[in-house]
From TrEMBL, chain B:
Domain of life from the UniProt record: Bacteria
Keyword field contains Oxidoreductase: yes
InterPro entries: Ald_Oxase/Xan_DH_a/b, Ald_Oxase/Xan_DH_a/b_sf, Ald_Oxase/xanthine_DH-like, AldOxase/xan_DH_MoCoBD1, AldOxase/xan_DH_MoCoBD2, AldOxase/xan_DH_Mopterin-bd_sf
Any one GO molecular-function label of the UniProt entry: oxidoreductase activity
Organism lineage string: Bacteria, Pseudomonadati, Pseudomonadota, Alphaproteobacteria, Rhodobacterales
Annotated Gene3D superfamilies: Aldehyde oxidase/xanthine dehydrogenase, a/b hammerhead (3.90.1170.50), Aldehyde oxidase/xanthine dehydrogenase, molybdopterin binding domain (3.30.365.10)
Classification via Pfam families: Ald_Xan_dh_C, MoCoBD_1, MoCoBD_2
PANTHER family: ALDEHYDE OXIDASE 1-RELATED, XANTHINE DEHYDROGENASE
Aldehyde oxidase/xanthine dehydrogenase a/b hammerhead domain mapped to chain residues: 29-137
Protein name in the entry: Molybdopterin-dependent oxidoreductase
Keyword list, A-Z: Molybdenum, Oxidoreductase
């Protein structure tokens, strides 16, 4: 399944200045792996700095989450809280 | 994740009730054990030497005279905390902040520490540590730090997030941009535009209990730490990383906590206490004084924010833009980025753009404070929204309702919203009696909205059923705001037993799997999922035990209302077995009965609130008093409504202090002038009215009971609600927080010529 992933601005220089990257993935884990393979510079931020928004729900840890058809997917910075 | 977290609309027996809090008696009788209440035989007392300079190169530290003081057992400097961070910039910032290495970066920065047999010897030794400083130019103001002639704090900082990367270092560590649409085209369509700059001053979380710990390093490589923290597993990892310990050999036990609000998500002195203990080979107790807490533990950012919003005469916002500059202390942070993400989150905007700039300054390292960064952004945006509503001639609530985000709205920070509560909180405000109550002389009314993300995280929980049928829940998320009560209610709900038969405790790091810390309003959200899961696992065990007791197939046993039932009629008219019945036989049916859960709680529901505030201003002195305050917030599901209301009230109280009085005041020399509660004034009971609350429950679709976090959002609207109220009371737009009497008086004098 092909998914369009929107990268936050800080990641774009690490991904050939792409804002949206189209990848084939069924889960968040596959999506992140595909991004890392294509853009090795993304490996470092993906290791501990990203959260993934799938259809508006923000996932910080659950990389097994399946991606629904036509899902809206954004890579976001992992948030801090009080 | 095997646990199905989907919301199930069901009625409750225990959840939603208001039993007595389990920690209440201990806390009001003084029995509760806080960080400083723990002691070990033979423990030493630690004191920290702190830089008196805002910015200074450390040329040399000579500890020889101090080491000669009778009773001194160890002295540590940065040399005793070698850099083991392996290129991890975030971890290095924590290390450098715990003990200055090449430079002291702010007034109060630790440069050395002493462990001695008593306070007297430790203090005497501090006075004899000779530090040779080369004082450097400093900058503490957020705007001054961005000027071309500002002293550069760190020659290695080149602004990230701009293309091409700058060739000159600066104090702007990062630029982050969010938004969608075309703001220029949007402003073209606007009939009216409001554009204004705002400032907020640095505040502290103001928790009543200072940081405190007892550290004990053993010669065999094991260590223990008793500490007041919001996250003992995170403290364990940070301390292990910084000291080169194995995480599993460092046992961290969290104490009762006298407030944290984000400030206890970060290690400040704990690695130093461990380093002292390692060197002295004795337990070391380190308790920060109030002055040290102010000077050297993480406050909020000070901010400078520019906002521009345009709207049509019918009240439709056509474009919104903000540039947010946030101080992060001397190290890069992501505080402006959070402000940029949250600033317009309440609204459905066709064109929006926000830019966050992280500014390093010679102030303490910023830490999270309850919905970090959102209150300042909300102050600026909600002030401008109010001003625009006035200009258009629309009611402030109606204007917000017209532009409020709803399910399906693309948020200003990117994702599309699911079911959310901003619209319902505004509708509730519109019809709330507070909104139509008459105002007295010199009084003004303001309202404002607020947003916070909430999040979940890694969670591990054990549920053990004793032979008498009572239940213990062991959780690894520190109870900051009442989670022991809410988790007990949830276990009672799932097991079908009484709340009084359940005891929730916070387990230490050696007795339970890893748990993220209590932040992001995740305590009850995450741990309730793990508790539900653990309870259901325990029920599965009890079904098996009932099947053995009855000698019938497992599939013929079902669980309902706290009892195992034999299904159908083929097993005769067997009386259902209660938890107590099954527990009493546990020893002969397979041994102890327990349920365990380890999971990742994701899918936290975003949270919105609307606040209403009435304020009275004395036009002669500029003094102001909040006379009525109402909080309306979506909880998803209020597990223990009294605690939820307490969270709403607490957040509002802290926001009121932030809005009216609290601020870090620095002298020309870069030294903090008011590191104490006499000169840094947080609200006390007599400053506040009864804060009314209204709980809305719009279920979070990603939690079985619909729970959202509730702890943080309540501090987001108060700055703006109060500023709007004061502005309406005095007829002058107030754009600089705190609205202290001198600042209000100056605005009045300026307006009156």
């Amino acid at each position: 399944m092909m998914v369009d992933v929107t990268l936050w601005a800080g990641l774009r220089p690490l991904a050939d200045n792409q804002k949206v990257v189209r990848v084939e993935a069924r889960t968040i884990r596959e999506l992140l792996r595909e991004l890392e393979d294509r853009y090795p510079g993304l490996a470092e931020p993906i290791k501990g700095q990203v959260a993934v928004a799938v259809n508006g729900v923000i996932y910080r840890n659950d990389w097994s989450q399946e991606l629904p058809e036509d899902a809206e997917v954004l890579l976001m910075r992992r948030l801090a809280g009080g | 994740m095997s646990f199905d977290a989907t919301y199930q609309n069901k009625s409750f027996n225990s959840v939603g009730t208001r039993p007595l809090r389990p920690d209440g008696v201990d806390k009001v009788t003084g029995r509760a054990r806080y960080g400083a209440d723990f002691n070990m035989p033979g423990q030493l007392v630690a004191r920290v030497l702190r830089s008196p300079h805002a910015h200074a190169r450390i040329k040399n530290i000579d500890t020889s005279r101090a080491e000669a003081v009778k009773g001194v057992k160890a002295i540590v400097t940065a040399a005793d905390l070698p850099d083991l961070t392996d290129g991890d910039a975030g971890l290095f910032a924590i290390l450098d902040n715990c003990m200055a290495r090449e430079k002291a970066m702010y007034d109060g920065h630790a440069v050395a520490a002493v462990a001695a047999i008593d306070q007297k010897a430790a203090k005497a030794a501090l006075n004899l540590i000779d530090v040779d400083y080369e004082v450097l130019p400093h900058v503490v103001d957020v705007d001054a730090a961005t000027l071309p002639d500002a002293p550069v704090l760190n020659e290695k900082i080149f602004t990230q997030g701009v293309e091409p990367t700058p060739t000159m270092p600066s104090n702007v560590a990062n630029r982050a941009e969010f938004g969608h649409g075309d703001v220029d085209a949007g402003f073209e369509q606007a009939d009216l535009i409001v554009e204004r700059s705002y400032k907020t001053e640095q505040t502290h979380q103001g928790y009543i209990e200072p940081h405190a710990c007892v550290a004990n390093c053993n010669p065999d490589g094991t260590a223990e730490l008793w500490v007041c923290t919001q996250g003992h597993f995170v403290y364990r990892q940070n301390c292990a990383d910084l000291l080169g310990l194995e995480a599993s050999k460092l046992r961290v036990t969290s104490s009762e906590i006298g407030g944290g609000f984000g400030g206890k998500t970060h290690v400040w002195a704990e690695p130093v206490a461990l380093a002292l203990s390692r060197k002295a080979n004795r337990p070391v107790k380190l308790v920060m004084s109030r002055e040290e807490v102010f000077r050297a533990s993480g406050p909020t950012s000070a901010t400078s924010i520019d906002v521009k919003i345009g709207a049509k005469k019918d009240g439709t916002i056509t474009a919104a833009e903000a540039t947010l500059r946030y101080t992060s202390g001397p190290y890069a942070g992501m505080w402006a980025e959070l402000g940029a993400m949250t600033s317009f989150a309440c609204y459905d905007l066709e064109s929006v753009k926000t830019v966050g700039l992280e500014v390093v300054v010679n102030r303490p390292k910023v830490a999270a404070y309850r919905a970090p960064s959102a209150p300042m952004a909300a102050f600026a945006v909600e002030s401008a929204i109010d001003e625009l509503a006035h200009k258009i001639g629309m009611d402030a609530v109606d204007f917000r309702i017209k532009n409020a985000a709803s399910e399906g709205t693309k948020s200003s920070y990117g994702p599309v919203y699911g079911p959310i509560g901003i619209g319902p909180t505004l509708e509730a405000a519109k019809t709330h009696p507070h909104m139509s109550a008459p105002l007295g002389e010199n009084q003004g009314r303001g309202m404002a909205c607020g947003f916070w993300f909430n999040f979940g995280g890694q969670t591990c929980t054990d549920l053990n059923i004793s032979a008498d049928g009572t239940v213990t829940i062991a959780v690894g998320t520190v109870d900051v705001g009442g989670s022991r009560a809410s988790l007990s209610l949830i276990a009672a709900e799932e097991l079908g037993i009484s709340y009084d038969d359940i005891k929730a405790v916070i387990a230490d790091t050696s007795t339970l799997g890893y748990n993220d810390m209590t932040d992001g309003s995740r305590g009850t959200f995450s741990t309730s999922m793990a508790t539900i899961s653990a309870a259901r696992n325990a029920i599965e065990v009890m079904r098996q035990r009932a099947a053995l007791m009855w000698d019938i197939p497992l599939e013929d046993v079902y669980w309902e209302e706290g009892h195992a039932h034999a299904a159908g009629t083929k097993h005769g008219n067997r009386a259902p077995l209660s938890v107590k019945d099954i527990a009493a036989e546990a020893g002969n049916t397979g041994g102890p009965i327990a349920g365990h859960s380890e999971l990742v709680a994701d899918g936290a529901g975003v949270s919105f609130a609307t606040h209403i505030c009435d304020i009275e201003v004395d036009p002669e002195t500029g003094s102001s008093r909040v006379v009525r305050y109402t909080v309306i917030q979506d909880a998803g599901k209020a597990v223990h409504p009294s605690y939820v209301e307490g969270q709403y009230q607490g957040g509002a109280a802290q926001g009121i202090g932030w809005a009216l009085n609290e601020e870090y005041i620095y002298g020309e020399d870069g030294r903090l002038q008011n590191p104490g509660f006499l000169d840094y004034r947080i609200p006390v009971c007599s400053d506040l009215p009864m804060i009314d609350t209204q709980i809305l429950e719009i279920p979070n679709p990603n939690h079985p009971y619909g729970v959202r976090g509730v702890g943080e959002t309540s501090i987001v609207p108060p700055l703006a609600a109060i500023a709007n109220a004061v502005s309406n009371a005095v007829g002058v737009r107030m754009a600089h927080i705190p609205l202290s009497p001198p600042r209000i008086l100056a605005a009045l004098n300026e307006a009156n010529g």
